[in-house]
Amino acid sequence: MIKFLFSIPQWLRLVVVLLYLSIVAKLSLMPSNQLPELNPFDGFDKVVHGCMYFGLTVLACWTFQAEVKRNWILYIVVFAIFWGLLMEFSQLEMKAGRAFEWTDELANSVGALLGASIYVWIAGKYRRRESASRTRGRGDDSGRGRLGN
After folding, report:
1. What is the distance between the alpha carbons of residues 24 and 73, in angstroms, rounded to a whole number?
2. What is the pLDDT of residue 139?
3. Confidence label for 114 from pLDDT (cuts 50, 70 and 90)
4. Which of these, 114, 49, 59, 60, lies nearest to 87 by C-alpha position?
5. Which of 110, 145, 147, 149 has the most C-beta neighbours closer than 10 Å?
6. Could you tell me if 97 and 35 are in contact, meaning their C-beta atoms sit under 8 angstroms apart?
């Protein structure tokens, strides 16, 4: 499954992350009376915020191959945090029954940090395993142990 995900062309990955970003924006900016009344426990909305930004960060890391381009991890996490702030300030300005909450932004930030960390860990393990199997598959190309060298 992971091999399949890494075989998807980058342009298609970009489409996926942009669609996800637009869904996050839509859900963040919907008037409160249009949102479902799901609240199985206190703080459930914070879990939802964290999950949304976890997903956003994982998709962005996947799109920009952050496990290979390490500096992109920071760019992606900072973008996600600022995107969350933009959504919170937009809620404040819209006056559609939504309000700016620092705890929502904290949940967004924690989700983004966890998403980047877990993505890099899993993708890094996959890339190392893939690299090791390619090396093993080539055999000994170093020329050592051959007669005449």
Report:
1. 20
2. 54
3. very high
4. 49
5. 110
6. no
